[in-house]
Amino acid sequence: MSETTERTGTTEDIRAVPVRHYGRWVAGVVIAILAVIAIRSVITNANMQWSVVGDYLFDDRILRGLQNTLILTVISMVIGVVGGVLLAVMRMSPNPLAAGAAGIYIWLLRGTPLITQLIFWNFLALFYPRLGLGIPFGPEFVGADTNVLISPFIASLLGLGLNEAAYMAEIVRGGILSVDSGQLEASSALGMSRGKTLRRIVLPQAMRVIIPPTGNETIAMLKTTSLVVVIGYFELMTSAQQIYAQNYKIAPLLITAALWYLFMTSVLTVIQMQIEKYFARGTSRAMTERNKWRTRLFGFTFGSGDKGGGAGGGVTG
Question: What confidence tens digit (pLDDT) does each residue in 217-252 have?
């Protein structure tokens, strides 16, 4: 038998000491100092003309341009999302004509600059002076002058919305492809139609993949609306340009427009986060995000069941 040695004395509780991350503290201090310097420089810079910014921040012309920007963003994104879903379904259709038509549309709209498309729609009368419906080589049932039918507002919607549909089609297609093919086979075995499978099985699961890039596209659309200035439509940037063309206060008017864009982008970002949280509920991704924020706020994460001290509970330093 081997000898056993008995130790006498008191045993001390093991005290876990978290790892010291001195580099993080140094980086945090440096960033904080640089942020204070930058903020102080912006606030105290007389060339910013903050008093002029305050005078025009809620000017009627600025607010009217802001309203038009929001209207363009919402309607264009609705056109883009609906068109993107239809194009994605067509692109994945077994019908070669539908798939080919969707592929050509996406290739054409993504392959040409958006500003070119806006100008094309605004000057569509150069190619088609009159738009109408009727029998080929026969009488026209309904028709109208193109310049009357395609106003700058309609041209803006067509340019922004149809271009966005091409990008949304690829986003939706990627989300649909992320759904496990076994579920499609199961729904087919249950006798579900292709449309019902898409509505009840595929799209609800694909939304987790579709929502984040769609939110990014919405934020990008908010700023892309400024391109409609080339066709003379009145929106936020156009209103700022018209004002500083009269009073030559270029810098403060640009700052005014930038502040409104930042505000609207921040609101859209919060909305996007809430929608992502809704569609990610019950998934491992949602738990990971929740624990990540708990770690940042409180310095620890809970284990299974979210009960402190429970099985699998852990403490992070």
Answer: 999 999 999 999 888 888 999 999 899 989 888 889
* Overall CATH class of domain 68-135+142-232: mainly alpha
Integer angstrom CA distances of residue 298 from 205, 290, 315, 316, 317: 32, 12, 10, 10, 10
Distance CA 65, CA 287 (A): 41
Q: Are 143 and 130 in contact (CB under 8 A)?
A: yes
Dist. CA 150–CA 156, nearest whole Å: 9
**pLDDT of residue 5 exceeding 60:** no
Q: Tell me the three state secondary structure of residue 244.
A: helix
**Contact between residue 124 and residue 146 where contact means Cβ atoms under 8 Å apart:** yes
Compute how many other C-beta atoms are within 10 angstroms of the C-beta atom of residue 283. 11
Helix H, strand E, coil C: the string for 198-211 is HHHHHHHHHHHHHH
- Per-residue pLDDT band at 307 (split at 50, 70, 90): very low
Cα distance between residue 291 and residue 150, in whole Å? 52
Rounded CA separation 315/41 (Å): 41
Q: Encoding tokens for residue 185?
A: 């086979």
Q: Helix, strand or coil for residue 132?
A: strand
The answer to whether 65 touches 239, Cβ cutoff 8 Å, is yes
Output 47-53 pairs: Cβ under 8 A, ≥24 positions apart: 47/251, 48/251, 48/252, 48/255, 49/249, 49/251, 49/252, 50/252, 52/249, 52/252, 52/253, 53/252, 53/255, 53/256, 53/259
d(CA 216, CA 210): 10
Contact 229, 238 (CB under 8 A): yes
* pLDDT tens-place string over residues 243-285: 998 988 888 999 999 999 999 999 999 998 888 888 776 665 5
Do the Cβ atoms of 57 and 256 come closer than 8 Å?
A: yes
Distance CA 114, CA 81 (A): 17
Provide DSSP, 106-119: HHHHHHS-HHHHHH
